[in-house]
């Protein structure tokens, strides 16, 4: 039987610490998909596509098109358009169409944030995180989080967890999870899990709550989170409350195994748990 050991939850929390996204970009390309312009220091692309900022004029000459797009972006930014200011800051951070310049990036992010751009508030939190200015990092993440930015809410959960402020961390994880952040949903499933939350330094005061654990794992699993699918399936089978619940658990294990995003470890664990479930099911029927 596959169980959720403390080591498993430790892995969840450690991987969570490494998953704080940094820069958020509202740019979209002409097909409506996110244009991956900003990456964090680990090379992970994290794009906020909540707002369409700039529609590039149709032009068959790619170079002149890019020049025109950038020119239009600068014009809009100087005219006070908040999301254009944010995108211009992102261009300076990433060195896209212009030489990298952190001072210019900070300048435009600040203008955008003061003009109401939620993504810019988040970006400033990330900018100051990289610069090692913890006070400003928290200040701007909090402003973004209070404006509803779920990545900022999630990051505040991580920060407070690292500081040992479990109550505050749990509050922000809940805010992010209720705001559809799949990582926060997954972490709440683990925090409320069968062992009562990860290693001793984290969430020791949180009582195990199987109902809450299943609730949040299920929400993350429905969003395609492979580890959530695996853990949800394992819990449902291990509870042995009724046949329908166990069958649902087996279905989630199958989804975890088939999930293209699943790691090799997840696939192996799902396969082994599913095989054991089928074996025991056959034994009970004989």
Task: Give descriptors for this structure.
286 residues; 0% strand; mainly alpha; Serine Threonine Protein Phosphatase 5, Tetratricopeptide repeat; 2 domains; elongated; disordered N terminus
Q: What's the gist of this structure?
A:
The chain is mostly helical.
List the helices and strands and how they pair.
Layout lengths: L5 H12 L44 H17 L3 H13 L7 H13 L3 H14 L2 H13 L3 H13 L3 H13 L3 H10 L18 H13 L3 H14 L3 H16 L5 H22 L1
Structure description:
It is a single chain. With 286 residues, this protein is mainly α. The protein folds into 2 domains: 1-21 and 153-286, Alpha Horseshoe (Serine Threonine Protein Phosphatase 5, Tetratricopeptide repeat), CATH 1.25.40; 25-148, Serine Threonine Protein Phosphatase 5, Tetratricopeptide repeat. Helices cover 64% and strands 0% of the residues. The protein is built from 13 helices and no strands. The protein has helices at 6-17, 62-78, 82-94, 102-114, 118-131, 134-146, 150-162, 166-178, 182-191, 210-222, 226-239, 243-258, 264-285. α2 (62-78) packs across α3 and α11 packs parallel to α13. The longest helix has 22 residues, at 264-285. The chain is elongated and about 75 Å long. The two termini are 20 Å apart. The relative contact order is 0.10. The model is unreliable at 1-61 and 196-200 (pLDDT under 50).
Beta fraction of the residues? under 5%
Spans of at least 5 consecutive residues whose pLDDT stays below 50 are 1-61, 196-200
The ordered string of helix (H) and strand (E) elements is HHHHHHHHHHHHH
- According to CATH, the fold-level topology of the largest domain is Serine Threonine Protein Phosphatase 5, Tetratricopeptide repeat
* Mean pLDDT across every amino acid position: 78
Query: CATH-wise, what's the superfamily of the largest domain?
Result: Tetratricopeptide repeat domain
- Measured between the Cα atoms of the first and last residue, the distance is 20 Å
């Amino acid at each position: 039987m596959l169980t959720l050991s403390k080591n498993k939850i430790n892995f969840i929390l450690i991987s969570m610490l490494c998953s704080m996204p940094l820069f958020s970009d509202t740019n979209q390309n002409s097909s409506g998909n996110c244009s991956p312009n900003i990456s964090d220091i680990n090379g992970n692309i994290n794009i906020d596509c909540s707002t369409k900022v700039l529609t590039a004029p149709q032009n068959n000459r790619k170079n002149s098109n890019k020049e025109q797009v950038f020119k239009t972006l600068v014009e809009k930014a100087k005219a006070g358009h908040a999301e254009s200011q944010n995108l211009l800051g992102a261009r300076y951070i990433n060195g896209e169409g212009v030489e990298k310049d952190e001072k210019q990036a900070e300048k435009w992010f600040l203008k955008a944030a003061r003009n109401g751009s939620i993504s810019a508030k988040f970006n400033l939190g990330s900018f100051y995180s990289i610069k090692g200015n913890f006070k400003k990092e928290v200040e701007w993440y909090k402003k973004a989080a209070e404006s509803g930015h779920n990545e900022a809410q999630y990051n505040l959960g991580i920060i407070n967890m690292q500081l040992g402020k479990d109550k505050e961390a749990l509050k922000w994880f809940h805010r992010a999870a209720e705001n559809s952040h799949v990582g926060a949903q997954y972490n709440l499933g683990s925090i409320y899990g069968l062992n009562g939350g990860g290693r001793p330094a984290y969430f020791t005061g949180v009582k195990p709550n199987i109902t809450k654990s299943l609730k949040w794992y299920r929400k993350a699993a429905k969003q395609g989170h492979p580890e959530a699918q695996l853990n949800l399936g394992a819990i449902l089978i291990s509870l042995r409350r009724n046949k329908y619940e166990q069958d649902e658990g087996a279905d989630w294990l199958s989804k975890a195994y088939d999930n293209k995003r699943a790691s090799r470890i997840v696939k192996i664990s799902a396969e082994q748990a599913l095989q054991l479930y089928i074996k025991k099911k056959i034994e009970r029927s004989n």
